[in-house]
């Protein structure tokens, strides 16, 4: 029997469930050269509350309406920025990441935006290669907006290796 999933907005009370999903998803980094990410703390409830206030949180919920994945997005540089995408590994490989991205893209398009950007690893197949299959293309540093540049620099300052990071952009229409 195939499990049914829905993509929806969370309730404020459900925000407290998202860090556990992020921690579980981060365990996928353990066999990679970026295993240290598995030990990083998840998003704080204050950060999640800020995304919630901006209407920038989407959930993937299972057949029991339990959250099993989420996306965080905000507007930077006059485009949608996908800040985070996590799916619990027990529910991975079922298209939930793609569906969450499509929900974010639909929201961005309804707001009048044309593009979505993100920062990810260029040396892990389930990061940049997945996004490329969805229609994202790598950006040259000269294509970064001011806010994306600040976010990229903050990632590097936090310990993410610059050589392993890539900014990518896609037209929202491609992601629907």
UniProtKB/TrEMBL annotation:
Alphabetized, the UniProt keywords read: Acyltransferase, Transferase
The molecular function terms in GO held by this entry are:
acyltransferase activity, transferring groups other than amino-acyl groups
The protein's matches in PROSITE patterns, at most eight in alphabetical order, are given as: GNAT (PS51186)
Q: Which InterPro entries match?
A: Acyl_CoA_acyltransferase, GNAT_dom
Q: Which Gene3D superfamilies match?
A: 3.40.630.30
Q: Which domain of life is it from?
A: Bacteria
**Domain named N-acetyltransferase: residues:** 19-163
- What is the official name of this protein in its record? N-acetyltransferase domain-containing protein
Taxonomic lineage: Bacteria, Bacillati, Chloroflexota, Chloroflexia, Herpetosiphonales
């Amino acid at each position: 029997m195939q499990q049914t999933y829905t993509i929806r907005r969370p309730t404020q009370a459900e925000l407290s469930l998202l860090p556990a999903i992020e921690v579980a998803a981060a365990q996928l980094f353990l066999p990679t050269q970026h295993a240290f990410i598995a030990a990083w703390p998840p998003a704080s409830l204050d950060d999640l509350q800020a995304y919630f206030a901006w209407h920038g949180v989407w959930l993937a919920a299972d057949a029991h309406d339990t959250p099993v994945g989420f996306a965080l997005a905000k507007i930077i540089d006059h485009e949608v920025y996908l800040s985070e995408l996590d799916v619990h590994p027990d529910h991975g490989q079922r298209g939930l990441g793609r569906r969450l991205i499509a929900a974010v893209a639909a929201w961005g398009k309804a707001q009048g935006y044309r593009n979505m950007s993100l920062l990810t690893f260029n040396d892990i197949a389930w990061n940049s290669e997945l996004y490329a299959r969805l229609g994202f293309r790598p950006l040259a540093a000269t294509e970064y907006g001011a806010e994306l540049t600040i976010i990229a620099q903050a990632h590097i300052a936090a310990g993410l290796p610059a050589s392993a990071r890539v900014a990518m952009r896609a037209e929202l229409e491609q992601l629907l």
